[in-house]
Every structure is written in C-alpha cells, then in structure tokens.
C-alpha cells in the first residue's frame, strides 16, 4: 500500500509540473471580448527582378496609376480565431526594381479543391481578393516578373459555388455600386481604374487555405470559405504580360475584404499587421493578427473614410517643425493622409513638399554637393548619409510620431564623379492627398487595429522573426519567443492534466 501511495504521489507531482508550466504562462487580455481560435500564417514574396535601375519618372508614372485607382475607389465595394502570417517578397527600393515592375510586395494564396496557388499583390488600398478565371479570353498567360501564372478553374473545383443575384451576399450585405447581375443570374462586378485599365467578372465562394499556428513550432493546415472575385475580362496594363500577376489581395476596410470576412466569422482577429524589409533582398511578413514589438505608438483612424486615413499634424526636420498650417493635411473625400502599401514612393501635398525639400537642402548645404539628376534633387555624398542628413518626424494625432532615418526619405542612385549620389525620395503630390508609401513603411511593424480604429507602428528589423499575439480562451497571449508560444490546443492539453492531477490527489488521499 505504501508503494502504491508513493507511485501515486510521484505521478501527481509529475502532472503538477505540467500544470505549473501552464500557470506561469502570461495572459494579457488585449482582445478579451473575442472568442478563441488557432493562429494562422501566410508568406510574402518578391514580384520583380532586381538587376535593372529605373528612373524616378517611371516610378512616379506607376504611382500615378495607383493614385488614380485610389481616387476612383480602387475597386472598392461601397469571438476571434487566430493569426494568419503571409511571408512577403518584394522591395521598397525603386532603384532596384526592374523596369517591368507592376507592384512591390506580393504573396501566394491557395483557393479551390484541389487547391490552386496564386501570386497576388498585397494592397491595403483596395478591398477585394480577385484572381484570373480560366474562362478569361484576353488575360495574359505568361509574366515577365519571373512568376508562373495560374487560372482559377471554377468548374474543376469541388467546393466552388456561385453567388447569385438573389443571394444576400450580393443583394444586401456585400451589395455595392460595383455589383451587377449577369444574364445567367451571377452576381458580377466591374472595376475601372483611372489609368484606363480594369477588370470584370463575377463573385465566387470557395475554400481559402492557410497555415494555422497552434503553438510554438506546431503548424497545421487550415481553411475557410470566402467570397472573392473571378476575373473574366481585363483591360489596360492588366493585360500586359510583362506586368502580369494572378490578381490583387485587398486588405481594405470594406465588408468584402478577406480581413473583414474572416474576422466577422471569428476565424481571425479584427487586426492585421505587416513588416516590410527595406534592404535589397526585400520580403517581409503580413499577418492577419497583431505583431508585438516594444515602443509601439498609435494614431486613431480618421472616421468615415474609405481608406486607412490618419490625421497628420506636422513635419519636423532635425527637431524643428516646418511652418505649415495643419489645414493642408485635413481629411476629406479628396484630401488627407493615406497609408498605402500599393504606392512605391511617398507623396506630400505641395505646401509641405516645398518646405520639406528646402529644409533638407539647407541642413546639408555645407556638407554635400547638391546636384539635379533627371529633374530630381540629389546630393553627392562622400561619407555615410546618417552622419550628414537630418532625422525627420511625421507627427500624427494622438501624440504618435513616425521617426524617419535619412534612408527613409533618400534613395541611393549609384556613383557619380567618385561620390555616392542620393536623391530625395519624397515627391510632390499631384492631388491634395498625402500618401505614405513603402518608402516610409519599410523597416517598421505596422498594426491596423480595426477593433479600436487605430494604426500603430514601431521601427523593426523585418529580416528578424516577430512576436505575434495568439488568442487563448478569452484572452490574447503574447509570445516571448520569436514565433508563437501558446495556443488553445496547449490550454486544452494542460487543462486535461490539471483535471488528472486533481483525480490523482483524490485517489492518493483516499488510500492514506
């Protein structure tokens, strides 16, 4: 009997160690009102060659197309699970972008049964995930971007479903001015962009696949049905093979965005994040969830705006505020400050741009040689730009400042007359909107907190792994490891051992 009691006590102590590990886990409650679910992942990839230089004029032309899309709506349609992490490829350096460039950052998604993989542009300025349909007659079949193009085969997918005109998805919840009814009763769409390009097709429902992180080093396949666009017609630049991709992955605020669809059903949190690498290799990560870094600052989103608008209040150069009237940044339907991963450069309204350029030039007038190259303001530098050029701060509502290093507003453009030539990367906005593109978004974690209607950011080396919040019970658990630390599965296992521990103790004392 004594031997049995000893064995029972030893077993109880062993289980107690497992329980102690659970009890020591941190349990912050950033999203306590939401339910639990597994953590999810997706990667970003590069979409263009890096062995060709390209002029700023070409980049501006590309961004003008982008901005026309934003101003026209960009195809906009008028209990939480886990985190989805998309590995990113691409680069923010326009001088390393091949001349056949069409976007900077993209990722791969899988749709259908059996699943087909698609290369899609990451875009916070639009809502819809759309891919090219196999029934498209004029869509490109090859790409000059070094990627294989794929087509969604609706009849060949075992889980594909059409969205009819009478479906609530078309007629109410997701009904927009872009939705239209086709002759065969399919809920269709037609997006026209300011550059003359466009896409039309119809909405589908099918299985969307991703990797679910269930705990540290534990990844499982996961999936969910979503509504997306199947493109049957494309025009303009979308038809050019040298710029062809499989579609666009919109992360906008609309109800038809993948973020909204998944979070409204409790599959992912109402928050997404990205960390874009700024060096020549590019890449990064895009997470349907919250990346955790120290020093995060937040600014509230401007309400009733279709895009991710922030209230920019002032700009500082070397700690001195530019003499700007804050009214130049006021938000309206055609004004304000937009955060947009689909824009390459960064654009300031005319009043701010002129003052900014003069402040930078005056600050380094005794240290560098100014030079105009292809109409751009550049500087010949003999040493590190960090030692010569001033820091810049973009100051937003809520007391949040975005600190910019010289490499966040300058581009290196080779060697001239034995010196390094650096050019101003900020551009004068053709409209009245200030647009923060990848030039300033790189090398930072950005968190789009849709539940609290705010955007946060902090400087970060995006070549490193990131800490991500995981839902656990009714709480978000913050990992102290490079990946994820605890999950719902962990909690259930440890809960089982807790119950077992209690039973063993009861048996032990009943035998004494």
């Amino acid at each position: 009997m004594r031997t049995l009691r000893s064995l029972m006590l030893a077993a109880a102590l062993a289980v107690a160690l497992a329980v102690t590990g659970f009890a020591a886990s941190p349990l912050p409650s950033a999203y306590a009102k939401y339910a639990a679910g597994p953590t999810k992942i997706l990667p970003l990839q590069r979409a263009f060659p890096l062995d060709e230089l390209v002029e700023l004029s070409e980049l501006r032309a590309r961004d003008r197309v982008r901005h026309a899309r934003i101003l026209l709506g960009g195809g906009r349609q008028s209990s939480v699970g886990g985190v989805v992490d998309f590995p990113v490829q691409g680069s923010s350096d326009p001088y390393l972008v091949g001349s056949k460039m069409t976007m900077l950052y993209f990722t791969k998604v899988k749709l259908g049964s059996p699943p087909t993989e698609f290369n899609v542009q990451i875009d916070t300025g639009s809502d819809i995930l759309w891919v090219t349909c196999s029934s498209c007659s004029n869509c490109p079949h090859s790409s000059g971007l070094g990627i294989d193009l794929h087509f969604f085969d609706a009849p060949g997918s075992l889980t594909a479903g059409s969205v009819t005109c009478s479906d609530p998805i078309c007629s109410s919840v997701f009904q927009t001015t872009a939705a239209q009814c086709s002759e065969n009763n399919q809920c269709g769409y037609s997006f026209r962009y300011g550059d003359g390009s466009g896409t039309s097709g119809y909405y589908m429902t099918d299985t969307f696949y991703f990797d679910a992180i269930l705990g540290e080093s534990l990844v499982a396949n996961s999936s969910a049905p979503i509504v997306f666009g199947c493109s049957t017609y494309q025009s303009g630049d979308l038809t050019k093979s040298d710029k062809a991709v499989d579609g666009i992955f919109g992360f906008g605020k609309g109800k038809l965005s993948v973020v909204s669809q998944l979070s409204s059903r409790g599959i992912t949190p109402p928050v997404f994040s990205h960390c874009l690498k700024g060096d020549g290799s590019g890449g990064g990560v895009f997470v349907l969830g919250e990346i955790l870094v120290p020093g995060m600052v937040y600014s509230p989103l401007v309400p009733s705006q279709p895009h991710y608008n922030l209230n920019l209040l002032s700009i500082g150069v070397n700690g001195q505020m530019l003499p700007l009237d804050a009214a130049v940044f006021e938000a309206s339907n055609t004004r304000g400050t937009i955060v947009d991963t689909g824009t390459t450069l960064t654009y300031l309204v005319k009043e701010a741009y002129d003052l900014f350029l003069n402040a930078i030039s005056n600050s380094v007038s005794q240290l560098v040689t100014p030079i105009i190259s292809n109409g751009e303001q550049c500087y010949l530098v003999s040493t590190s730009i960090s030692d010569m050029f001033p820091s810049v701060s973009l100051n937003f509502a809520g007391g949040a400042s975005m600190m910019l290093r010289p490499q966040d507003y300058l581009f290196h453009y080779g060697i001239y007359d034995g010196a390094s030539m650096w050019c101003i990367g900020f551009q004068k906005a053709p409209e009245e909107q200030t647009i923060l593109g990848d030039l300033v978004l790189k090398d930072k974690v950005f968190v789009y907190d849709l539940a609290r209607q705010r955007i946060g950011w902090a400087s970060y080396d995006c070549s490193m792994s990131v800490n991500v919040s995981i839902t656990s019970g009714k709480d978000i658990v913050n990992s102290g490891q490079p990946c994820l630390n605890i999950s719902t599965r962990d909690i259930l296992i440890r809960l089982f051992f807790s119950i077992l521990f209690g039973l063993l103790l009861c048996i032990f004392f009943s035998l004494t």
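The longest helix spans residues 488-511. The chain has two domains: 79-267, 290-467.
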